Amino acid sequence: MKPVSVMLGAYAAVLAALAGPAANAAQEKISDGVVRIGVMNDLSGPYAYVGGPYSVYAAQMAIDDFGGKVLGKPIELLSIDHQNKPDIASNKAREWFDQDKVDILGEVAASATSLAAIKIAKEKNKIVLLSGPAATRITNEDCTPITAHWTYDTYALAAGTGRAVVKDGGDSWFFITVDYTFGHSLEKDTADMVKASGGKVLGSVRHPFPTTDFSSFLLQAQASGAKVIGLANGGTDTLNAIKQASEFGITPKQRIAGLLMTVSDVHALGLKAAQGTYITEAFYWDMNNETRAWSKRFFEKMKRMPNEIQAGVYSSITHYLKAVKAAGTDATGAVMAKMKAMPVNDMFAKNGKLREDGRMVHDMYLLQVKKPEESKYPWDYYHVRQTIPGDQAFIPLSKSTCPLVKK
Question: How many CB atoms neighbour CB 45 within 10 A?
């Protein structure tokens, strides 16, 4: 008879052999046994206060609220400052995918940096979730199977603010436009909407990114005689332009239309400077009990209310994690299929739909900044003037130039 120790050893070996394939299969469901989410955005420059560390925290909230694990495996968050430079975004994306085994990019703020990172992600077959970028080309001529454009785009901003301002009497426009992809797209989409609404465009001028002195650009806008000066820019560029327009006495003789503004911008400007401004956003913290509850949790940590970008980061990452759970794997194709099949229902959107072109379609809101005397409590900044249904807010698929769209 063989010794008991030998028999037990042989028995253990058989069990290990039998369990091996199952154990390996379980491990393969989540690559490397960890779901790694990378957030790269502007942490120190002109867009830092509208995204920056606040968007990173929103991503962490999504992970924490999901329980910190998916399919029994831990979820990790990485973040970095891309300094609004496409080459840094591109190089870091490659490094994250190749060396750090990052599974998805959970946000790549700014259009130019996003387009650079998407190119690498497509090469590596990795998902990219976008909340801060606005250029419509992300889901049109530059669409990819791995892109999810979540919060807004320049078409949606134009459809809300451009149409509303013309209807309110602002039927002649002059644009001050930041000279890169986002600004060009925002100017074009808004100009098209102004003309379609019966208005006219008297001219435009482009400025470098970023800019602190808008005097020459504002003087050109003033000389045009346009009723509306459309700011096709964002971040501190928008704030500087609005402040200087007031200092030069250009407003209120001519109206300023900040085409990409969030509640963070209104807070920075103050109600006295921003009052009456029409703004189109995807989210407002004070919309209902659900938005208020989530936003107050955000406020406890960050000491400010979240804007649409941060809410979009939370929503997109939460939806991704739900899709991983539903798919039973973090494999890109399976997860994207689930993301497009499952509706988006959370504090950010109800019955949202991720389309075949990568555009997440949801309602947008036309908001108007309150007068100082109308605000009853901190961060009480907006009148909600109109809900714009998703199928009206975003480019219809019939007009899409995305090669993934079947017509």
Answer: 19
Note the pLDDT of residue 21.
43
The residue behind tokens 């249904």 is: 389
Which residues are registered as beta bridge partners of 388? 364
Domain CATH code at residue 336: 3.40.50.2300
Mark whether 304 and 246 lie in a shared domain: no
How many beta carbons lie within 10 A of that of residue 324, not counting itself? 26
- In the chain, how many domains are there? 2
pLDDT for 15 equals 39
Structural element, H or E, at residue 22: helix 4-29
Domain that holds residue 252: 155-281+365-392
Amino acid (one-letter) located at 390: G
First to last CA, the chain: 75
Helices 111-124 and 181-196, packing angle to 10 deg? 110
Going through 82-199 in order, the beta strands assigned E by DSSP cover 104-108, 127-130, 147-149, 172-178
In three state form, how does the secondary structure of 71-121 look? CCEEEEEEEEECCCCHHHHHHHHHHHHHCCCCCEEEEECCHHHHHHHHHHH
* Mean pLDDT confidence for 10-23: 41
How far apart CA 35 and CA 15 sit, in angstroms, is 29
Q: Are residues 194 and 220 in the same domain?
A: yes
Claim to verify: residue 231 and residue 335 sit in the same structural domain? no
* 372 and 234 assigned to the same domain: yes
- Residue (of 266, 265, 260, 315) closest to 134 by Cα position: 260
Bond into 210 cis (ω within 30): yes
CA distance 392 to 363: 9
d(CA 326, CA 315): 16
202 and 55 in a common domain: no
pLDDT in the model for residue 129:
98
User: Mean pLDDT, to the nearest integer, of 336-358?
Assistant: 98
Q: Are residues 200 and 246 in the same domain?
A: yes
* 179/200 same-domain check: yes
pLDDT digits (tens, 9 = 90+) for 229-275: 999 999 999 999 999 999 999 998 999 999 999 999 999 999 999 99
- In a domain, residue 311? The reply is yes
On whether residue 18 sits in a domain, the answer given is no
The whole-model pTM stands at 0.91
Write down how long the chain is.
407
Q: What is the mean pLDDT of the chain?
A: 93
Check whether residue 66 and residue 146 sit in a common domain. Answer: yes
- Say how far apart CA 140 and CA 404 lie, in whole Å: 9
Single-letter amino acid, residue 313: V
Contact, 380 vs 370, CB < 8 A? yes
